[in-house]
Design goal:
The protein is α+β, with helices and mostly antiparallel strands. The chain has 29 helices and 17 strands. Among the domains are: about 235-405, no CATH class; about 485-555, no CATH class; about 560-640, no CATH class.
Length: about 700
C-alpha cells in the first residue's frame, strides 16, 4: 500500500511498512518510527527521506490510528458481547430514547488508549485531579514556549544551508529549517525541557513532584503547561483562606474594637503570601523600553547560550524586553468581549497598573443566588504594565517566553485543569453526538461493529494535526510527564473478565475491593495491622500478586471513582458521603459494613459519615476532616424539618432557658411564688441590667455580621 501511495519513497518497494511479509514480529508503529528516523547521505548531505516528505507523516499517523481503533473495537466487543448484536433499529431506538450515554461511556474507556483522543485527555485530567486530591494542590503553574527559530543548539542539528546571499544564519533559512525538520524540532524541545525541569525545578527550586503536558500552538509549534509542588511551599491555599477569613472579620467588626485573633492571623497570612510571591516570581523590569533607555540588541538574546553570557543583568533585560512582554493585542489572539461589555479587552488583562509593593486585594463576587462572596487576588509589585510573570532564573535558563502563576486558590487550580489539562469536550458528549449522526445516516445493512468503528474514526478526525504534533505521535514520545503512577480504582467493585476453558462460563478476576474485604487472610504476609487500615491506604500500599500481598511503589496514586460533588447543595450529596465512607472508614465484607449494614438511603449515608468524622480515626486519616465536619453541620441546618412549631417552640427564648433552672417537683412551684427573684441580680451593675433585655438581639445581629 505504501509503495503505491509513495513511489518516490519506496522506488524498489523495500521497507514498505504495510507489507505483511516483512518483519512480522515488528508492529506498524515501530516500523514507521524507524522510517521517520532513517537518514541517508545524498550529495554529501544527510537527508531524512521520510520525515521531510510533506504528506508521508500524516498518512502514517492515519494508518496507525486506524489500526489502533480496530484493535480497541475488537477488545470492546469481546468484553461487551451483548453490544455486538445490536441492530440498526435498536440503536436508533436507543438514541431516540436518550439511552446511548451508557454505551458511549463504555466505549470511551477503550478510546483512552488512543493517544491524543478526547478520552485520552479526559483521563489525563482525571489523573491530575487524583494527584491533587491525594497529595494536595501544587505550588504553581508554569508554561514554557519554544524559541525554535533562535535556539543555536537546535539549528546546529540542521544542514549548513544558506540563502541566495550566502547567509546561513538568516531568518528565512532558520524558518525553512524548522519547517523541513519537524521531527528534529519536536524531539529537541522535549529533551531540552526534560533536562531543564531536572536542573531548574528539582536541583534549584527543590520540587517534590511535577506534572506537565505538551500542546501545540496555532502555528504548530510545541509548548507545555504544567504544575509543580515545592518543598518549601508554606501552604498557600490555607494561607489564602486564613487571609480571607481575617478580611471578612475585619470589615464586619467595629473600628473602635481591637483586632480579633482571626484578623491578626489573616494579616500574618497575607504577609507570608506576599513574601513568598516576591521570592519566587517577578513582574518588574529594570529597564522598561517605554522609558527610552533600552537599546534593542543586534543579536536576538535567544540565540545566545546561557554559559556564554558575560553581562547577566543586560542579558536579563534583553530577554524581558524581547520575549517576556505582551506588546501586541489583537482580535485573533487575545482581544475578547466579556459579558455585556462593548469594548474589547485583553483576555490576559494587559496592561496592568503599576504597584510599589506586592499586596492582597479582595473582590466582591456576585453569585447566582445573590449570596455575597469574596475572592482574594494577589497584586504583585510592578513597574512595567506589559511584562509577564516570570522567575528570573527560569527566563534566563530557558531563553524563551515562559510563565509562572502561584496557586493560592484551590478552585482556581481546578479551573486550570479544565482549561489546560484537557481542552476537549466531555468524552461522552462528543461521542454521543457523533454516534447519533452516524447511526441516523447509516444504511440498513450496517451493524453495530461498523458504526462503532466509524464513530471513533470520526472523533479522532475532529481537529487538525500540526507537523510537529504528528512527529510527536510517530516518534512515540510521551504527551504527559508526571512524578506519579496513577491507577484506576472502582469503588463499585467491578471485575475484569478473563479467559475460561469453558465457552459458556464467565470468569472474572477479583477486584481490589474484594481483596481489601478479605485482607485479614493475608495478615500473615505482613507485619502491619491490616484490620484498622482504610481502603484508600490499602490500595496505595498493597496489591495482590499470585495470591500474596506485595508492596506498591511509593509514587503510586489511586484514581478512585465514581466521584460526586462535595457541595452540600448537590442532589447527590448522599452518594458523596457513601463513597467517602468506603474510602476512609475501615470495613469488612460486605462493603455495606461501612454504614452498619442498614437500609441504604441518603440520610443514613450523611449521618454515618458525620458520626465517623467525629472519631479519632477520621481526624488522623481524613484530609481536612474539620472542614468536612463543618459542611455536614451546615447541611444539617439546611435540612431542619419545617413542621408547624409546637407550643414549646412558640415560647420566647428566655422562657425556654428558664426551664433549665426550674425543678420538675411540683412542690417547688408553691415555694417559687415566695422566692425573692431580685437576689440573682445583685452581682450585676446597673448598666449590665439595662442592657439585658436587648442582649439576645444584639448577639444575633453580631453573629449575622460575622457570617
Amino acid at each position: 500500500m505504501a509503495t503505491l501511495a509513495f513511489p518516490t519513497l519506496f522506488p524498489d518497494s523495500k521497507g514498505d511498512p504495510t507489507n505483511p511479509s516483512l518483519l512480522k514480529n515488528v508492529t506498524l508503529k515501530e516500523k514507521i518510527k524507524h522510517l521517520i528516523k532513517f537518514a541517508e547521505k545524498k550529495d554529501s548531505e544527510w537527508c531524512y527521506r521520510f520525515a521531510n516528505h510533506p504528506r508521508f507523516s500524516y498518512w502514517a499517523l492515519n494508518m496507525i490510528q486506524r489500526k489502533q481503533i480496530l484493535q480497541q473495537t475488537v477488545i470492546f466487543f469481546k468484553q461487551n458481547p451483548g453490544e455486538k448484536h445490536l441492530t440498526l433499529l435498536e440503536l436508533r431506538d436507543m438514541i431516540r430514547n436518550n439511552q446511548s450515554n451508557l454505551l458511549m461511556t463504555k466505549l470511551s474507556r477503550y478510546i483512552t488508549n488512543i493517544t491524543g483522543s478526547d478520552a485520552y485527555w479526559f483521563k489525563g485530567k482525571e489523573d491530575l485531579k487524583a494527584i491533587i486530591q491525594h497529595v494536595g494542590p501544587p505550588t504553581f503553574f508554569f508554561t514554557f514556549s519554544s524559541a525554535d527559530m533562535h535556539w543555536p543548539k537546535l539549528h546546529d542539528l540542521f544542514q549548513n544551508t544558506c540563502n541566495v546571499n550566502g547567509d546561513c544564519n538568516a531568518p528565512d533559512v532558520r524558518r525553512q529549517n524548522v519547517i523541513d525538520n519537524p521531527h528534529i524540532v519536536d524531539w529537541f524541545y522535549t529533551e531540552r525541557l526534560k533536562n531543564f525541569i531536572k536542573h531548574w525545578l528539582y536541583n534549584t527550586l527543590d520540587a517534590i513532584w511535577h506534572w506537565y503536558r505538551f500542546e501545540y500552538q496555532s502555528r504548530g509549534s510545541i509548548h507545555c503547561h504544567g504544575v509543580a509542588k515545592l518543598n518549601n511551599d508554606p501552604g498557600l491555599c490555607k494561607l489564602s483562606e486564613t487571609a480571607l477569613k481575617g478580611y471578612l472579620e475585619d470589615v464586619s467588626e467595629d473600628e473602635s474594637t481591637p483586632d480579633s485573633l482571626a484578623i491578626v492571623n489573616g494579616k500574618i497570612a497575607g504577609e507570608n503570601i506576599c513574601r513568598y510571591y516576591d521570592w519566587i516570581l517577578s513582574t518588574c523590569n529594570p529597564d522598561p523600553p517605554d522609558e527610552g533607555n533600552w537599546i534593542k540588541p543586534i543579536i536576538h538574546p535567544c540565540q545566545k547560550i546561557y554559559n556564554d553570557i558575560e553581562e547577566s543583568d543586560s542579558d536579563y533585560i534583553d530577554l524581558l524586553n524581547m520575549v517576556q512582554r505582551h506588546t501586541r493585542c489583537s482580535t485573533s489572539y487575545c482581544l475578547r468581549k466579556k459579558g455585556n461589555e462593548k469594548e474589547l479587552k485583553c483576555r490576559f488583562n494587559f496592561p496592568f497598573e503599576h504597584h510599589e509593593k506586592t499586596s492582597l486585594q479582595f473582590e466582591l463576587i456576585h453569585t447566582k443566588d445573590s449570596t455575597p462572596k469574596y475572592k482574594m487576588q494577589v497584586v504583585t509589585k510592578r513597574n512595567d504594565s506589559r511584562v509577564n510573570n516570570h522567575q528570573p532564573l527560569q527566563l534566563q535558563g530557558w531563553r524563551a517566553n515562559c510563565d509562572i502563576q502561584l496557586v493560592v486558590d484551590y478552585q482556581a487550580c481546578v479551573e486550570y485543569l479544565a482549561k489546560y489539562a484537557a481542552k476537549s469536550e466531555t468524552r461522552s458528549h462528543l461521542l454521543k453526538n457523533t454516534f447519533s449522526a452516524i447511526v441516523q445516516n447509516c444504511q440498513s445493512t450496517a451493524d453495530a461493529t461498523t458504526m462503532i468503528k466509524k464513530t471513533v474514526m470520526k472523533t479522532l478526525g475532529q481537529r487538525d494535526f500540526s507537523a510537529q504534533e504528528t512527529m510527536h505521535h510517530l516518534l512515540s514520545l510521551n504527551f504527559v510527564s508526571l512524578s506519579f503512577i496513577v491507577f484506576p480504582v472502582n469503588l463499585n467493585g467491578s471485575r475484569r473478565l478473563k479467559l475460561s476453558d469453558a465457552p459458556d462460563e464467565v470468569v472474572t478476576t477479583d477486584s481490589l475491593l474484594d481483596t481489601y474485604a478479605e485482607r485479614d487472610k493475608y495478615q500473615t504476609d505482613l507485619k502491619c495491622n491490616l484490620t484498622n487500615m482504610n481502603f484508600l491506604e490499602f490500595a496505595t500500599k498493597y496489591k495482590l500478586v499470585s495470591g500474596k500481598l506485595v508492596t506498591q511503589p511509593k509514587n503510586l496514586i489511586p484514581r478512585v471513582f465514581p466521584t460526586y460533588s462535595s457541595s452540600i447543595k448537590s442532589p447527590k450529596f448522599g452518594l458523596y458521603c457513601k463513597y467517602q465512607l468506603l474510602r476512609y472508614k475501615p470495613w469488612k465484607t460486605p462493603p455495606q459494613d461501612a454504614w452498619g449494614n442498614k437500609q441504604e438511603n441518603d440520610e443514613l449515608f450523611v449521618s454515618e459519615w458525620k458520626t465517623f468524622l467525629q472519631s479519632d480515626y477520621a481526624q488522623n486519616y481524613v484530609p481536612d476532616w474539620h472542614d468536612k465536619l463543618e459542611d455536614l453541620q451546615e447541611y444539617s441546618d439546611l435540612h431542619v424539618h419545617t413542621e408547624e412549631p409546637t407550643e414549646s417552640e412558640q415560647r420566647e427564648e428566655w422562657m425556654i432557658l428558664a426551664d433549665f433552672s426550674i425543678s420538675n417537683n411540683s412542690s417547688d412551684a408553691e415555694a417559687s411564688s415566695l422566692h425573692d427573684w431580685q437576689t440573682t441580680s445583685y452581682p450585676y451593675t446597673s448598666q449590665q441590667k439595662t442592657e439585658m433585655p436587648s442582649w439576645i438581639i444584639s448577639k444575633k445581629q453580631y453573629m449575622f455580621i460575622k457570617l
